[in-house]
Amino acid sequence: xxxxxxxxxxxxAQQVIPGGVNSPVRAFKAVGGDPIFVKEAKGxxxxxxxxxxxIDYINSWGPMILGHAYKPVVDAVVxxxxxxxxxxxxTQIETEIAQLAVKMVPGIDKIRFVNSGTEACMSAVxxxxxxxxxxxxxxxxxxxxxxSDSFLIQAGSGAVTFxxxxxxxxxAGTAKDTLLAPYNNxxxxxxxxxxxxxxxxxxxxxxxxxxxxxxxxxxGFLEGLRELCDTHKTLLIFxxxxxxxxxxxxxxxxxxGVQADIVxxxxxxxxxxxxxxxxARNEIMDYLAPVGPVYQAGTLSGNPLAMAxxxxxxxxxxxxxxxFKRLEExxxxxxKGMSKVLTENGVVHTINRLGSMISVHFAEKPVTDxxxxxxxxxxTFKKFFHGMxxxxxxxxxxxxxxxxxxxxxxxQDLDETINAVAKVAPGLx
Length: 429
Ligand SMILES: *Cc1c(COP(=O)(O)O)cnc(C)c1O
Known about the structure:
Layout: H1 4-16, E1 38-42, E2 45-48, E3 53-56, H2 71-81, H3 92-104, E4 110-114, H4 117-132, E5 136-140, H5 157-161, H6 172-175, E6 178-181, H7 186-195, E7 200-205, H8 221-232, E8 235-239, H9 251-256, E9 262-265, E10 276-280, H10 282-285, H11 304-319, H12 322-344, E11 350-354, E12 357-361, H13 370-374, H14 378-390, E13 393-394, E14 403-404, H15 411-424
Parallel strand pairs: 3-13, 5-6, 5-7, 7-8, 8-9
Antiparallel strand pairs: 1-2, 2-3, 4-10, 9-10, 11-12, 12-14
Helix pairs in contact: 2-11, 3-11, 7-8, 12-15, 14-15
The chain binds pyridoxal-5'-phosphate.
The site of pyridoxal-5'-phosphate has 15 residues, from helix 4.
């Protein structure tokens, strides 16, 4: 494939945008080469500026669960846009999407909409601190909760890919309130509670991790966190920005039957427009301004175009629960197919999968936390990435990312992908 025009556009972008991108993971820094500039997308396919067609396994990093330019979503946005794009006043559609989200997600009474997953997680932690009157939070190494200061401590994917696990610009004062534990390790969490008695406001976690590749929680891990939180009167925050409305209509809470105190959303909930949200039971949500003392606001929050896209998306997911089953079946098919050809070619690998999230690690041992994810062979990943790209398959340009399966993928697309792996595999040994 030829990427002449993409490379020229990238050179131009770098003159006026830092690194030529508005979010670091889009650059190909970790795998080498220039990023691809997309012109348009439809269903499971991306069409780039050079006219190449790529099968897309990133899907805007999650939101396009039903495929690109999904008609009901596009129609809803176009219709709304003609009636004005922002008012800074209440609109009925905000209540409509809130009602639907509250119906779909277990254990929440109220939801507040913001503009990104970052904002949702940042606000959820402020709310937890206000509600409990405590300062500290526990996060897990390799989990990503957006780029606000408290979270840029061992923050997984983007941050790790670019070699800045702890970002300059985050003050020591902020960093000291973020306590760190390894994923899937209850003992270490227990120790943090013992060393910080009555000081921990919240545990924030990706209940199925997706920012160090896909890492599901081990048996009893989420239940154990729930128990520890109950014992220590600490709030449990599930960051479902990636998993919400993806792994089940009600997210990981529904899938695994563990109830969080606050849940955050992003990605799918906005149908591809900039939306985040956080939600909890009344007692907690009523701590927010204008009812309660914890301040949180947004000029464009609840934006009508964003709400129209999100509502159209949630309606589709709510009205066809089979979507999640179909997605899981497609992901399983891809898993088996890839695993078979990699094994046949003697390529050491571990594939993690849950629902429509899947990741390939070139590691021999199980990948269960950040340390084991970091042990995988990054050189092999680079070869794999560029080999797949040459075959017209677009996966994330980093070994620390999950692939996102969309319902628009056909079994023919999946076979094409497996065949591409078969072609690339002999060069990976
Ligand atoms: C993507 C992501 C975020 C950040 O969301 P943005 O919309 O990029 O700010 C937070 N948490 C998780 C788990 C994510 O995957």
